[in-house]
Amino acid sequence: MSTYERLSVTDRIFLEMETHEEHLHVAVCMIFDAAPLQLPDGGGVDFERISRYMASRLHRIPRYRQRVKFIPVEGDPIWVDDPTFNLHYHLRHAHLPHPGDERQLKRLCGRIVSQLLDRGKPLWEMWVVDGLEGDRFAVITKVHHCMTDGVGGIELLGNLLTATPTKNFPEGPAWIPRPMPDRRQLIRDAISRRMQAPVTLTRSLLEAAREPRSAWEGLAESLRGLREAGTYTTHPASETPINQPIGSHRRFDWLALDLARIKEIKNRAGRTVNDVALSVAAGALGEFFELRGIPLREQKELDFRAACPVNVRTEDEAGRPGNRVSNLIVKLPLEERDPLRRLERVHETMSELKGSKQLLAMGAVESFAEFTHPSLLTYFARMNVEKRSSNFVFTNVPGPQSRWYMLEAPLLELYPVVPIMPMQGLGIALMSYAGGLYWGFNSDWEQLPDLHELVLATERSFEQLHEAACALEPAGTGERDATNAG
């Protein structure tokens, strides 16, 4: 029997917002110890063995063998099995030229994330990169955002990697693509679905009538969330040098910090890891703008905001493909140069946002989409970004604290890549893993030719905060860590 799945409203928004300049894929650059996978002749890692290993794991990720198709007339996107799927197209082998340093790897990653994924094939790629100095190799994975978000990406990696070294592995089960639905079936199903919409609405109204107080309270909270989210569009953030029209080329850079030292700041100040990370980023961006000649201390009205994706999955939704994410808009005190005072102000802002209904906005949007056309919501999502509801994306994804492996090769470091949005030349993604907090800086090639200066400023901001926090008496274990995941 033919089969297909509709994209969710959020997944569809990520698919439809993509343009030639605005690439909406997420990525990660992983660095492994090459010694366990080296060929005997020293010609790099055993790519053929990695290929066979990948083939044995694909059944764990059905989306990797599916592509997007569109329903005739209606135009809604759906997932269908790709009968022409070929792993050799998606899994690629590259080699860095001598000396194979990290600067070359960063440039390669920037070029890879600058290229759109082919919409006619499953929306992912994986690049195995040989020749990295220090007897290491890299794997760069790129997946369209309509397939997964930050937390989903961690689950995806957990299906490709293992928690223990693996030498021998069985072949994966045979895969037979399910037939695609024909045009008549898709049109018939679309008509049936549209005809069911009034029935669905009536059922919802009847359920609300049984518990009117609860229904009105839920509706009021959802409307409050939409109103809060809309406020950031009607009152745009300040214009900065990183909020210009973006092009199609990207720069990528990174920074690794010791998670134990970050937790030391958290414990001494009685804050959260996410508070510390946002405070470090605010300090770095403040210094970076001053290096650009922007006197922040004289701009008391600067309204600089981070869009922080937050995981809203329920326990029942764990492991499901797609996006379950909403946004928090967080104002950052870039003008505050005292590191402890800046941390306190970030913490106060995050505490205030705990009572915010912003996270309900996406759920309200998804419900509303059932009774209108989702493309209308894509238009509003794009307008929300272009009207400068925020200045950049900042996402912090909690990863595993135990070591992961590709076959016998241990994963040493991993640097996430978040896509940059229209009128936003910068995106910062963090991922914790095995005792480290890894920062990935993705930027527009033209707007941030000095991206590495921001990376260095981030390192200085962290050291200043750590030094100031170490002068404090420990405040206990601090509050429960609140990490966002987009």
Describe the structure.
- The protein contains 13 helices and 15 strands.
- It is of the alpha+beta class.
- The strands form three sheets. The protein has a six-stranded mixed β-sheet, with helices on both faces. It has a six-stranded mixed β-sheet with strand order 8-15-14-11-9-10, with helices on both faces.
- α4 links the parallel β5 and β6 (124-132).
- α9 packs across α10 (339-353).
- It is globular.
- The two termini are 35 Å apart.
Instruction: Give the rounded overall mean pLDDT.
Output: 88
- Rg is 23 Å
Poorly predicted regions are none
Helix content: 25-40%
Largest sheet entry: 6 strands, mixed
The secondary-structure class comes to alpha+beta
Order of helices and strands: EHEHEEHEHEEHHHEHHEEHHHEEEEEH
How many E-type strands?
A: 15
> What percent of residues are in strands?
15-25%
State the end-to-end CA separation.
35 Å
- Any idea what the shape is? globular
Strand order of the largest sheet: 5-6-7-2-13-12
Number of helices: 13
Provide a concise account of the structure shown:
Helices cover 38% and strands 21% of the residues.
Comma- or semicolon-separated keywords:
13 helices, six-stranded mixed beta sheet, alpha+beta, 486 residues, 15 strands
List the helices and strands and how they pair.
Elements (H helix, E strand, L loop, with lengths): L4 E2 L2 H8 L8 E9 L13 H11 L8 E5 L6 E5 L5 H4 E5 L6 H12 L10 E9 L3 E9 L5 H11 L22 H28 L1 H23 L15 E9 H11 L3 H19 L12 E8 L13 E8 L6 H15 L6 H10 L4 H13 L5 E6 L7 E2 L2 E9 L8 E8 L2 E9 L6 H20 L16
Parallel strand pairs: 5-6, 9-11, 11-14
Antiparallel strand pairs: 1-4, 2-7, 2-13, 3-4, 6-7, 8-15, 9-10, 12-13, 14-15
